[in-house]
Design goal:
alpha+beta; R-spondin Fu-CRD domain-containing protein; Hormone Receptor, Insulin-like Growth Factor Receptor 1, Chain A domain 2; signal; two-stranded antiparallel ribbon; Furin_repeat; Growth_fac_rcpt_cys_sf; about 25% strand
Length: about 350
């Protein structure tokens, strides 16, 4: 049986390393492991990731010392042969002895990787990225990132970024901080407690899971007068004490009444206040008080008598300004005024409107 060549052994080691590292992306150690994946980093799995999820996976893979090419592809949205399994017949000219199914494993001095169908190398500047465990390479001179359609040069070597820095241009100049840190003067600083994304020391823009952003702070639940959108507390609206949306107020502040999911100082016509809400009056009333059938005003053509709307006043009463008023005691019936009798009680005679 022929003995394996050095190249065959190298390829076997590379393939084994790729198989071991790929599944780790779904359960990587570190503070922010990112979204779970159903298995290895395949083209289908990566395609399902949002931009934020891809960057979270990149952070986790990077922290675990995974394939730096995968980290770069996830971080910058670069083309990458995620499903590549077989090494090329020959390595690219730029890396004749250092390649695997995804292309070049490293680039010679003065060259940087280019991302296309497979990773290759081309002359150009590099990009400083945080050093994975065990890496001791030096940063390529004139470190910076340039990108154009189909290609994006990134680092061929590693050098540590500043503490808590996710992406940098040099060991002392950070461009993007890790989750829960903000950038100030090229340095990363801790956000307030329970904050995931912030842009300064005192306020939070996006809170950690199970917390809500309220006026720049992270809270477990929204205070009165605010409702949860799932990640933030929003105002219920003027004079509203509790709501589930800006158009559905369920309770009003004191001295205000709830009417049609809004808060008003007094109920409109045809409504009366009851237990903090405006209730509709009976159809028999034009206006009411304390109860739906306790009328205070009547529809056109009717008059109010003893809290009810009638077509004519009862005997001993006369209509005046929409209300039935009692006649004078000397009259049986009257009209116009209380003492303008139209009929008299039994035993009395009517004379000139008087009994």
């Amino acid at each position: 049986m022929p003995r394996p060549t050095a190249l065959t052994l190298l390829l076997a080691v590379v393939l084994l390393a790729g198989l071991l590292l790929a599944p780790r992306a779904s359960a990587l150690p570190g503070r922010d492991p990112g979204p779970p994946l159903p298995g290895p980093l395949t083209a289908a799995a990566v395609a399902r990731l949002s931009r934020a999820e891809a960057q979270a996976v990149a952070r986790a893979l990077h922290a675990a010392g995974g394939d730096w090419r995968m980290v770069a592809a996830l971080r910058h949205g670069l083309p990458f042969s995620w499903d590549a399994r077989d090494p090329p017949a020959t390595c690219p000219d730029a890396c004749p002895h250092q390649c695997d199914p995804h292309g070049c494993l490293a680039c010679p001095p003065g060259m940087v990787p280019t991302f296309g169908r497979r990773v290759s190398c081309a002359p150009g500047p590099g990009l400083a990225v945080r050093q994975p465990p065990g890496r001791t390479h030096e940063q390529h001179p004139s470190a910076r990132l340039e990108s154009h359609t189909g290609h994006a040069p990134v680092a061929a070597a590693y050098q540590p970024c500043p503490e808590h820095c996710f992406q940098c241009t040099s060991p002392t100049s950070c461009q993007q901080c890790n989750t829960s840190y903000y950038l100030a003067n090229d340095t990363c600083h801790r956000c307030i407690d329970n904050c995931r994304i912030c842009f300064g020391p005192d306020t939070c823009d996006t809170c950690a899971s199970f917390y809500l952003q309220h006026q720049g702070q992270c809270v477990v639940e929204c205070p009165g007068g605010f409702y949860s959108t799932g990640s933030r507390c929003q105002s219920c609206g003027d004079h509203c004490a509790a709501c589930s949306s800006p158009t559905t107020c369920s309770a009003c502040q004191s001295d205000y009444l709830r009417h049609d999911a809004a808060c008003v100082a007094q109920c409109p016509t045809s409504y009366y206040p009851e237990e903090g809400n405006c209730r509709r009056c009976s159809a028999k009333c034009a206006a009411c008080a304390n109860a739906s059938d306790n009328c205070t005003a009547c529809p056109t053509g009717q008059v109010l008598q003893a809290g009810a709307c009638v077509s004519a006043c009862s005997a001993g009463h006369f209509p005046q300004s929409g209300h039935c008023q009692p006649c004078d005691e000397s009259c049986a019936t009257c009209a116009g005024t209380a003492d303008a009798c139209t009929t008299c009680p039994e035993g009395k005679l009517l004379q000139a409107g008087a009994c």
